[in-house]
Each structure stands twice: as structure tokens, then as C-alpha cells.
Amino acid sequence: MTDHALRLLRQDRRLAELAAHPVDFDLDRAAHGHVEEVRLASGGPLETVAGDDTGGTYFVCADGSVLYADSEGAAGIIGSSVDETLELVIGLPGWRDCTRLSPDDGEEEILACVARTEDEIREHHHGIDEERAELRAALGFPERSPVELVGRLRAALLRTEPDFVLLDADEGCAYDRLGPDGPPLWETVLAAGRADLARLREGDRTAWREVAEDPVRRRITLRAAQFDRAEGDPELLRHLLRHETRSSMTDELRLAAVLVGLRGDTGDLPLLLEVRETDFDTACGLGGMPEPGASADELRQWARELDESMFGTDPSDEPVSTWTDLARDQGMTDLARVTLIRELDTLFMDQSRLRRPDAPRTLATAPLSGLARDFEQLGDLPQALRAQRLYAALQETAWDRASARHTLARLEREAGRLPQAADSLAAVRVALATPGDDSLRYWQQVNLGRFIAEEHYRLTLALADAGRPEEARALLTAADAVLGELSENAAKGVRELAERTAARVREAD
Predict the structure, then answer these.
(1) Which residues contact 409 (CB under 8 A, 6 or more apart)?
(2) Which InterPro entries match (predicted)?
């Protein structure tokens, strides 16, 4: 649809006033913006076109879709254009009370919900029906049933993720979903694998070749087989297992071995042992496998124990990283990023989720560093910084603090946040100088010391290139001091960078 109706509102003050009252689509509120600075996680543009009296804002996205954000931190697509959105807000003036409705609820329930909301509005605005009819006729909209409008609203809301997720621009956290949740990530990720698994089961020889030779399709098909275990799968599982050795030790290689072993067929032992001996990594990753001559019960027990500890049959029990990795490998980058952002938001809001079950007073912070790496691989440095910053703040030993702050400084430098990177390196030096424990007693002789020195010089170069000579000189002095403490062996790989950096700083002066 076009945005013809929006142009009419902008040209006709009477129509604009009707849109503002009673349907609460107020063009004048666009000038005030939203209650806070926001941006799309996907990076697309946003144009503010209207607001409402609750502090909510209507944004137009690059494709014309309208994103509504309320003042309480929830947002969602409510129309494919401004015209479609205006049809909605005129036809359902209490549409915000309908975001959880579905056509599946049935006409009776939908009409009852809409009637209750509209009756409440009529108590405060007696002329709403006449004014809506006038506005609808002036804009050229047909009168649609509430059931149809609810269906449109639900379809629009389900398009919100992953392309239209709204973020707080300062903090980087995501707005909650407005309306229904979409399908779980695992369902979307597994769709192609389930299709390939069906083709393999049908005996499609082209599929047998194509799936086996494509590492991503192979992995997803094995995951599909994990949650749909059929008696007739042994041969296709052996086929995928043989080809998965090309990727060395992966979770899916172990999964394929488990699915084969669960059948307790000792005739599979030669294949399993051959797979185990593919390389050093597979020998370690498949350790504990029964040796030649083992019984069917021993083979089945080995597979069952691995299955129970690492896999299982419920996709919702899998770590979120399983699905985000597979989503990224399939090119679903925005879907992976949005899922990771929501995972990070959850940890920010409830750090007790990081507590170790066996030691409640201790935090297991590895998920945060894992999120930082995932975001970096996706090219989302702001979110990587957000995860790494929290990870660094939660470290307890001097070694972990220095290491985490060093990584934070690197990310800040790569994101162009040079003063913040300098502050992070200053915190590293504080940890080296006053550790408070003995975890850093050998830092001068190991790679951590070398990496810290290298980051000092790289940031010094960045400061010089950015036209900040005074800061570059100060950091060069600190870098030289760190280098001076390194052992001869650790310092070897840093000296060429140190000399090049010193020359660049002299040039900048």
C-alpha cells in the first residue's frame, strides 16, 4: 500500500485532529520524538511520524513498515505501511489491548474483547463512532471487521523479529516483543535439516551426496535426526558420520556417533573406532568408546551416557549457542544476533543466572565471554563491548581482571572508542601493579604479558593516526614500561611493533 492517507493528514488540519482524537495517532507528537534514543538492531533507518498520549511512538522503517514503540519498553510492527496502520488504529482504536489476540481465538472472543475496549473509550469520548466514520471516509478506507483487523495486526507483529527489533541506543538492550512470540529459534534453524532428513529417508541419492558434502547441511540434518529418531535411519546416520570426519571433532560428529551407537549394533564398532582415530582431536573427543570385542550392552551404555549428558530429544533443552551458531552458518545473521541480544539482556537483568549450581556464591562468567566472541564474529562490536564490559566487571582474580580488560581495550580500539580503550589499559596496569593475589606472579614470562604490551602499542598507533599526539606519547611511555618488564623471550615478538610505534609517534609530533 501507499502512504496516501498520511499525505492527506498532513495537508488537512481537520483530518489530522481527528486522527489525534479519537484514534490517538497524533502527527504533532512526532516533533517530540520518542521517550529515549532508539535504533534498530539491524541498523536500518527510522522516521518518527506520530505519537500517542501514552508516550508511544510510531516509526516508519526503510521498507515502509510501521514500528510502534510504547513508553514501557515494548515494540512491534503493526502495519506494512502508514496507510495500513491508520486503517488499524481507526478500525481498532483500542488496538493495544488486542495484541495478544489471534484469529484462532474465534470471532466471538475477538468481538467481545473489542467491544469491551471500545465501550470504555466511549465513556470518555462520546462522538468516537461518528468521528471514526468521518475520518475513514475522508481517507478512502473501507470498513473492515475487527476479526480481519486482528488477523492483520497479528501477522504484522509476527514480522517484528529479526529485522525490526528496537534497541535502547545508549544501553543497547532490546525492547520486549509487543504481542505474540514467534516460533522458537530452534524451529526456524531446523527447518532445512528436517527437509533434508526427509529426502534422505526417501532414498534421494542426490540428497545423500549433496547433504553429506555440505558441512552446514550435514550438521543441521544430524540435529534434525537428534530430535526425530527413526528405526530406519542407521544407514543414513553412518553415511553422515563418515563425512562429518572431514570437519574433525565437532559436536555433530559426537552426536552422529551417539545416534549410531544407541542401536547397540556391534557391527558398527569398526566404523566408530575408525572415526575415533581420524585425528588427535577426535581421539580425545570420542574417548571412552568401547574397544573391539565390546558387547552390544557396553556400546549402548556408552552412547546412552553421552546422549543423556550432551544431547537428548528436546530441542528446547539445547544451549542457545547451538541454535545461534547454526543460524549464523545458514546466513540467518540478524536472527542469531537478536537471539544473542535477548540472551545478554537476560543476564544483565538477572546475574544470578550465572551462579554455579554446585557453588552458589561463585559466578560462572564464561557465557558472557562467549557472547562477546559471538557478537564479534557477527560484526556487532557495540554488543560485543556490552558483553565484555560486564564480563570484565565480574572477574575476581587479578589474572582474569587483566585478561578481560585487555580484551575490552582491544574491542574498544576496534570500535574507535580510543579514550575508553586507554582507560581499560590503565585498569590492566593497575591489576599488574597491585594484583591483590598471586595469579599474576609470572605475567612477565607468558603470552598474557606479550599481548598486553602489543595492545598498548596498537592503541598508541591508533591515537597517533587519530591526531591525538599527546595521548599517544603518554601511552607510548606506558607501553615501553610494560615491555621493559617482559622476559627476553616474551619481549622478542613485540620489539618490531614497539619500534614502528615509536617512529609513528615521532612523525605525529
Answers:
(1) 421, 422, 424, 425, 428, 455, 459
(2) TPR-like_helical_dom_sf (IPR011990)
Quote the cell numbers at residue 208.
545423500
Whole-number Cα distances in Å, 100 to 37, 86, 164, 367: 27, 19, 19, 32
Distance of alpha carbon 341 from alpha carbon 41, whole angstroms: 9
Provide the pLDDT confidence category of residue 126 given band limits of 50, 70 and 90. Answer: confident
CA distances from 181 to 61, 158, 426 (A): 21, 7, 44
Amino acid 443 reads: W
With CA atoms as reference, report the closest residue to 158 among 177, 131, 136: 177
C-alpha 103/C-alpha 105 separation (Å) is 5
The string of pLDDT tens digits covering residues 411-466 is: 999 999 999 999 999 999 999 999 999 999 999 999 999 999 999 999 999 999 99
pTM for the full model? 0.91
Strands (E), 66-178: 66-69, 74-79, 166-168, 176-177
Cell 473489542 sits at which residue?
A: 114
The C-alpha cell that represents 281 in the structure block? 582431536
For 429, the grid coordinates are 596496569
